[in-house]
């Protein structure tokens, strides 16, 4: 993406060229089962409100495609990313990604920009759906409480959460599954989940595994 294209996309998302705020994307994975999705609307509104409480950021939201229909009638405090914006182009335009257990974080890694992992329900999620990786194994700044979201974003803007932890190279997404995944033996240590389509809506090409 050229600098001009990035500026144009940021403008479409509500950030004018002379606006000094940073662009933050909240893109969580879905909750519930494959046949029965769940969305805590009040919690989502509260989370977005907490993120948007900072004067130095503009927060936008992209729902997982399996959760999108559950947003009907919800008055969100931030803008929803238009459906026609490609996910990879969106990731190239934002300054900070806030996500949870979604493999979208792997798509964002090439940008070398900060990631905040908002894992307020990690024990419940781990029990119900499992994780392929411990969160300590993936890059990102961990946040476990809504009250810490605004400060976590501030720390991300200051440069935290942008590097992979020291250790064996590469955590990579396994397409067709959700959650934090990696090639090799760690897949055997977590209980598998049903196959689903890719994470977040919008046209997105298959990532190259190098």
Explain what you see.
By secondary structure, the protein is α/β, with parallel strands linked by helices. Helix content is about 25%, strand content about 15%. The chain contains six helices and eight strands, in the order αβββαββαβαβαβα. It has helices spanning about 5-10, 40-50, 85-95, 105-110, 120-130, 150-155; strands at about 20-25, 30, 35-40, 55-60, 80, 95-100, 115-120, 140-145. The strands form two sheets. Strands 5-4-1-6-7-8 form a six-stranded parallel β-sheet. Strands 2-3 form a two-stranded antiparallel sheet. α4 links the parallel β6 (about 95-100) and β7. The model is unreliable at about 165-200 and about 205-210 (pLDDT under 50).
Task: Draw up the topology in text.
Elements lengths: L2 H10 L9 E5 L4 E2 L4 E2 L2 H11 L5 E5 L17 E2 L6 H7 L2 E4 L4 H5 L6 E4 L3 H7 L12 E3 L5 H9 L53
Parallel strand pairs: 1-4, 1-6, 4-5, 6-7, 7-8
Antiparallel strand pairs: 2-3
Helix pairs in contact: 1-3
């Amino acid at each position: 993406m050229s600098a001009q294209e990035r500026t144009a996309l940021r403008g479409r998302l509500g950030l004018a060229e002379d606006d000094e705020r940073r662009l933050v994307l909240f893109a969580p994975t879905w909750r519930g089962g494959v046949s029965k999705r769940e969305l805590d609307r009040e919690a989502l509104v509260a989370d977005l409100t907490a993120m948007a409480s900072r004067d130095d950021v503009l927060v936008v939201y992209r729902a997982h495609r399996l959760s999108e229909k559950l947003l009907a009638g919800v008055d969100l405090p931030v803008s929803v990313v238009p459906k026609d914006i490609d996910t990879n182009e969106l990731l190239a335009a934002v300054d900070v990604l806030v996500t949870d257990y979604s493999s979208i974080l792997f798509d964002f890694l090439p940008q070398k920009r900060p990631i905040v992992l908002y894992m307020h329900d990690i024990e419940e999620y781990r029990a119900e759906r499992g994780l392929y990786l411990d969160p300590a194994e993936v890059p990102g700044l961990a946040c476990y409480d809504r009250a810490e979201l605004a400060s976590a974003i501030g720390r991300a803007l200051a440069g935290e959460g942008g590097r992979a932890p020291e250790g064996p190279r590469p955590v990579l997404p396994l397409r067709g599954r959700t959650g934090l995944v990696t090639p090799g033996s760690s897949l055997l240590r977590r209980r598998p989940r049903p196959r689903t389509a890719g994470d977040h809506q919008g046209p997105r090409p298959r990532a190259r595994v190098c």
